[in-house]
Amino acid sequence: MAFLLSLVPRRWLWYWGVVLGWLWWDVFRFRRFTLYRNITIVFPELPKAERVRLIKRSLSWLGFNFFETLLIPGMDADWVRKWVVLEGEEHLDAALAKGKGVLLLSLHLGNGDIAAVALPVMGRKLNLISKRFKVKWANDFWFGMREAKGTKLIEPHARDNAFQILKALKANESVVFVIDQFMGRPYGIPTEFFGRPTATAYGLSLFAMKTGAPVVPVWTYHGEDLRIHVAFGPPVEIEHFSDDKDLQMKGMTQKYNSVLERLILAHPEQWMWVHRRWKHWE
Questions:
Q1: The domain containing residue 236 runs over which residues?
Q2: Which of 264, 259, 240, 217 shows the shortest CA–CA distance to 103?
Q3: Would you state the pLDDT for residue 282?
Q4: For residues 102 and 196, what is the distance between their CA atoms, to the nearest angstrom?
Q5: Residue 258 has what pLDDT?
Q6: Using the 8-state DSSP alphabet, how is residue 109 labeled?
Q7: Number of domains the chain is built from
Q8: How far, CA to CA in Å, does 78 sit from each of 74, 83, 121, 137?
Q9: How many Cβ atoms sit within 10 Å of the Cβ of residue 4?
């Protein structure tokens, strides 16, 4: 399938994505309330028509991402050089130069699946913390594509999760934490996101505090030419909020959320709005 899709002009994949987005919103009507509510929380000043337009645009990008991700089995260094634009690599290199490994702060923006493969293909050691699917064939297919290209996967709640993360950092590798989704007890901590109460995974803050490894933001977005940009930002410095461990983790997690908010506002049409981000903390 990857070979056949590679023969299809990239612009056609975009139009196919538009069709998938249309089916999602107008035919299957999946999570329409969640989509509209999330957009309203972040952009309360937008007229209703503009909110719907933004939703449809974001669903078109999700559709395009689906087809783009299916290209992974055929991805090689030549494909990456043609379709991937790397930005801010100096921030990652400077962080790696400290020899403590790097904690990468990320979110569901653009197409992170492509970034998670493109970086290993270009020689970067990358460990991705990601939940697996419950359906075996879907799990083997979706994650097998990544692992075949060199992406190392870490189960977020596995018994040896901490050991795998520390092992990767000791080897001076990068570990990706995707923390823009709701996370309740026992792995989450109460925070705010765009001014609304929610909860966020605190693992990134905990490992940053324990190891001293630098935290570097990484995100993706598509340009008008449909090339995908993989961007790294300056490290997020650890700030002292409290001598209490839990309050310190909460303060740092909130700081990471603020970074993600700015990235979403820069490319709102490419964030995954369908997730129920604002749930009640219990």
A1: 74-268
A2: 217
A3: 65
A4: 29
A5: 99
A6: B
A7: 1
A8: 10, 9, 10, 29
A9: 9
Q: What is the mean pLDDT of each run of 10 residues along the chain (282 residues)?
A: 83 98 97 98 98 98 97 95 98 99 99 97 97 84 90 92 98 98 95 97 97 99 98 97 96 99 99 95 69
Note whether 127 and 239 are within 8 A (CB): no
For residue 186, is it within any domain?
yes
* Domain presence at residue 42: no
Preceding peptide of 186 cis, ω within 30°: yes
Are 272 and 181 spatial neighbours (Cβ–Cβ below 8 Å)?
A: no
Q: 80 vs 3, 120, 121, 231, CA distance in Å? A: 15, 11, 8, 14
- Which residue has tokens 């969640």? 34
pLDDT of 3: 72
> Which structure tokens are listed for 41?
């929380």
Alpha helices by DSSP H, 122-226: 136-148, 161-170, 203-211
Structural domain includes residue 155 = yes
Q: Which residues contact 165 (CB under 8 A, 6 or more apart)?
A: 127, 129, 154, 175, 207
Assess if residue 151 is contained within a domain: yes
